[in-house]
Amino acid sequence: MKFLHLTIVLTISLIASACASTGVISLGENLYYIGKKDGSPGLGISLENKAEVYKEANAFCESKGLKLEIVEETVVAAAPARLGSTEIEFKCI
């Protein structure tokens, strides 16, 4: 019973941490990266996860009085035993 409880707690912890954004990471002069795993079950692309990444990047640029410009987008669809994710490289112009 203890093993089952520990397994459940670890699984929930992994799923919760998988949902966390990387936050905005500087890649150099006015080039940034942000990524987020989608912790929700299912198959395909999570539009909610994708929207959250874009909102966070947009808020970062707006805090500088600038607008978001996407340089590159990578979206991985969820599949059995694999979480989906959204990653973007962007500039604030």
Q: Can you walk me through this structure?
A:
The chain is of the alpha+beta class and 93 residues long. The protein has one domain. Helices cover 37% and strands 32% of the residues. The protein is built from 2 helices and 4 strands; from the N terminus they run αββαββ. The chain has helices at residues 2-18, 47-63; strands at residues 25-28, 31-38, 68-76, 84-92. Strands 1-2-4-3 form a 4-stranded antiparallel β-sheet. It is elongated and about 40 Å long. The N and C termini lie far apart (56 Å).
Tally of domains: 1
H/E series: HEEHEE
Beta strand %: 25-35%
Gyration radius (Cα, Å) is: 16 Å
Keywords:
alpha+beta, four-stranded antiparallel beta sheet, elongated
Give a brief description.
By secondary structure, the protein is of the alpha+beta class. Helices cover 37% and strands 32% of the residues. It has two helices and four strands.
